């Protein structure tokens, strides 16, 4: 252990913490799910927004046959990157059916209306389905235009696949967390380092600003910033990030005050190094551990703030799927027989925040940081 670097020693301690490693694995799985969301989702349409009102509020595991009717409007085929990041456009209109048969030049289907009503018989011309379908071969038609659709986690009030929207919601939550943490660290580390290093009036003014913002409830501050910036995903990035920089600034300020009196800093001043070089090259690298801890803690807070904003209607706007937005749409069903519609995204939030808290605790122990120095 004596010949290891501080980073290697920290990792050696961290990986012995089973709870922290479990949290890290959950976070890695979440990032994998977020990156490859459209490849994992049953509904790979943009924002998993394929609606079918007759199939709304279906129980988990419910399966239905759907007739795929090509859209009349021709759409350009998306590129690989576009499909990977934004999904594939809807090229079919989905009609739920209970049975079908081909007669002459038509397809006769019994369209599913609801579980209480009888199916409605409808006929569609074979020409509607493009030239390859102009055949009386039922198996050939079924391979192209009949699909078995299963809602593994059920469907929401608009008939959208809940599993797909929960998966895509992971991308939104982690994106908000990443951007908010980056913004909070850039602002907080800069202000904290300047306040701690220069001291005097500079420290007094910046500390006064930090104390004022520290006294405000985080959610109210984010809502106020959202009002000023407007509704949207990028606005949420900025609003959440600007509401969390104070914690990082207070931590960095305290660390800089204790480090700037060290002998190697005095030696750097004697060698004529500029203040900016001393801060960026000699002080900040020696507080990487505490900054990593506060970053992990802020990541969990950002996910909670984003969920709260989405629940209140200030987050990413529909049809973008967010966990908080899904709870908002379905919280009324908690007292009914469809409580899972709100419980499943709620569990996703809880598991993700818990995983980051486990990692935060593991990092704190690995870097041997006193718990009172970092507000978890």
Task: Summarize the structure in words.
57% of the residues lie in helices and 10% in strands. It has helices at 6-14, 18-35, 37-40, 80-86, 138-145, 162-198, 200-214, 218-229, 233-259, 263-270, 275-283, 288-312, 323-330, 340-366; strands at 62-70, 92-103, 106-111, 120-125, 146-151. It has 2 domains: 6-32 and 163-373, MetI-like fold (Orthogonal Bundle), CATH 1.10.3720; 54-155, no CATH class. It starts with 5 loop residues before the first helix and ends in a 10-residue tail after the last helix. The longest helix is centred in the middle third of the chain and has 37 residues, at 162-198. The radius of gyration is 27 Å and the shape is elongated. The chain has 376 residues and is of the alpha+beta class.
Ends: how far apart? 29 Å
In spatial order, strands of the major sheet run 4-3-2-1-5
The parts where pLDDT drops under 50 for at least 5 residues are: 371-376
Domain count:
2
- The helix/strand order is HHHEHEEEHEHHHHHHHHH
**CATH C-level class of the largest domain:** Mainly Alpha
Radius of gyration of CA atoms, rounded to a whole number: 27 Å
- The shape, in one word, is elongated
Helix count equals 14
Strand fraction band? Answer: 5-15%
The CATH topology label of the largest domain is: MetI-like fold
State the helicity in percent bands. 55-70%
Oligomer: single chain
Structural class: alpha+beta
How would you sum up this structure in a few lines?
By secondary structure, this protein is of the alpha+beta class.
